[in-house]
Amino acid sequence: MKFCCREIEELHENSGLREFAVFTARYPDGFVFVLQHRALDPDALPPFTESPMSTVSELLLKYCPWCGVNLNQFYCDQLEELDRSGLKLGMGR
Ligand SMILES: [Zn+2]
């Protein structure tokens, strides 16, 4: 696996943890790059609150925020290795 920079490699290793993470997810026409933050550990119970609360937040990325490469171009032959579609909002848990 060849990463464009150390930051992306570290964030990919965080996928699914109570951290920021970067991974790919399947989309109708291919893959998207997801920058995701999880507020809870994978096995944690959601806190009780009467107000709506987001425990998972995410943005879709086109370029690496650290080194600037076009992500779909740089990772064109590694998109499936980075695939964690089950973690994406609206696609699983
Ligand atoms: Zn990079």
Structural commentary:
The protein has helices at 6-13, 71-74, and strands spanning 20-27, 30-38, 56-61. By secondary structure, the chain is of the alpha+beta class. The protein has one domain (6-41, 53-87). It is elongated. 18% of the residues are buried. The structure holds zinc ion (ZN). Residues 4-5, 8, 64, 66-67, 69 line the site of zinc ion (ZN). Zinc ion binds next to loops.
- Summed up, the domain count is 1
Main sheet attributes: strand count, strand direction, barrel closure? 3 strands, antiparallel
Termini gap = 27 Å
Order of helices and strands: HEEEH
Globally, the shape reads elongated
Number of helices: 2
What would the average pLDDT be, to the nearest integer? 95
- Low confidence ranges: none
Strand line-up across the major sheet: 1-2-3
Cα-based radius of gyration, to the nearest Å: 14 Å
Structural class: alpha+beta
**What ions, cofactors and ligands are bound?**
zinc ion
Tell me how many strands there are: 3
User: Which range best describes the helical content: under 10%, 10-25%, 25-40%, 40-55%, 55-70% or over 70%?
Assistant: 10-25%
Beta fraction:
15-25%
